[in-house]
């Protein structure tokens, strides 16, 4: 779940904490939330370099086992992925021509900023959980969220009405302020 933590840190936490931080670089300005994707790329390169030999052999072994168990399915998945990649490469120029204001950098920006970043991280996190089989508790951010969730659940079991009315009053006070 290290990749899940990296995604949360670079696409959600750093942009949220540095929302109003701006640096002047020459004649232009650079906002801290715009560094999320470059930081993500640097972190992914570092993790890949750190665990390269182990992951290459693990992926190769998994592919060979899948090929032995269900050869038609493994070849079908590889063929479907190749065809999808080929279609994207062949159709991209036409799609970009028909949508002049929407290029690859705009799509990446929209997927990594605001609420769309949270949706992207959630989907990638669910896919990572499904493919790696690692428990959610291995993630630092999930572990940090589990303790308050446990406290909330215990408070709800002890006195549900008082807990819910207290939370409603707290949220109302925040919105009024």
Overview in brief:
The protein has 177 residues and is mainly α. It has helices at residues 2-17, 36-69, 71-98, 104-111, 115-132, 140-158, 160-176; strands spanning 22-25, 28-31.
Overview of the molecule:
With 177 residues, the protein is mainly α. The chain is 79% helix and 5% strand. The protein has seven helices and two strands, in the order H-E-E-H-H-H-H-H-H. The protein has helices at 2-17, 36-69, 71-98, 104-111, 115-132, 140-158, 160-176, and strands at 22-25, 28-31. A two-stranded antiparallel ribbon has the order 1-2. The longest helix has 34 residues, at 36-69.
Number of β-strand runs:
2
Note the beta-strand portion.
under 5%
User: Which consecutive residue ranges, at least 5 long each, have pLDDT under 50?
Assistant: none
What would you call the structural class?
A: mainly alpha
Element order: H for helix, E for strand: HEEHHHHHH
Strand order of the largest sheet: 1-2
Question: Could you report the average pLDDT, rounded to the nearest whole number?
Answer: 81
Major sheet description: 2 strands, antiparallel
The whole-angstrom Rg is 22 Å
Helix content: over 70%
Total helical segments: 7
| Cα separation of the termini | 38 Å
**Principal-axis shape:** extended
Topology diagram in text:
Layout: H1 2-17, E1 22-25, E2 28-31, H2 36-69, H3 71-98, H4 104-111, H5 115-132, H6 140-158, H7 160-176
Antiparallel strand pairs: 1-2
Helix pairs in contact: 1-2, 1-5, 2-3, 6-7
Please tag this protein with its features.
5% strand, two-stranded antiparallel ribbon, extended, 79% helix, 7 helices, mainly alpha, 177 residues
């Amino acid at each position: 779940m290290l990749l899940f933590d990296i995604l949360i840190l670079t696409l959600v936490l750093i942009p949220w904490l540095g929302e109003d931080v701006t640096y002047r670089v020459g004649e232009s300005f650079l906002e801290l939330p715009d560094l999320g994707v470059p930081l993500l790329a640097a972190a992914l390169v570092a993790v890949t370099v750190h665990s390269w030999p182990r992951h290459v052999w693990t992926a190769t072994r998994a592919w060979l086992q899948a090929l032995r168990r269900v050869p038609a399915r493994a070849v079908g998945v590889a063929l479907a992925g190749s065809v999808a990649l080929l279609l994207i490469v062949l159709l991209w120029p036409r799609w970009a021509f028909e949508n002049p204001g929407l290029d690859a950098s705009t799509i990446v920006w929209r997927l990594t900023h605001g609420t769309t970043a949270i949706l992207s991280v959630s989907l990638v996190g669910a896919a990572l959980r499904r493919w790696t089989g690692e428990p959610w508790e291995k993630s630092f951010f999930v572990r940090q969220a589990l303790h308050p969730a446990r406290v909330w659940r215990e408070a709800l079991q002890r006195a549900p009405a008082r807990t819910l009315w207290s939370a409603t009053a707290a949220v109302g006070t925040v919105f009024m302020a």
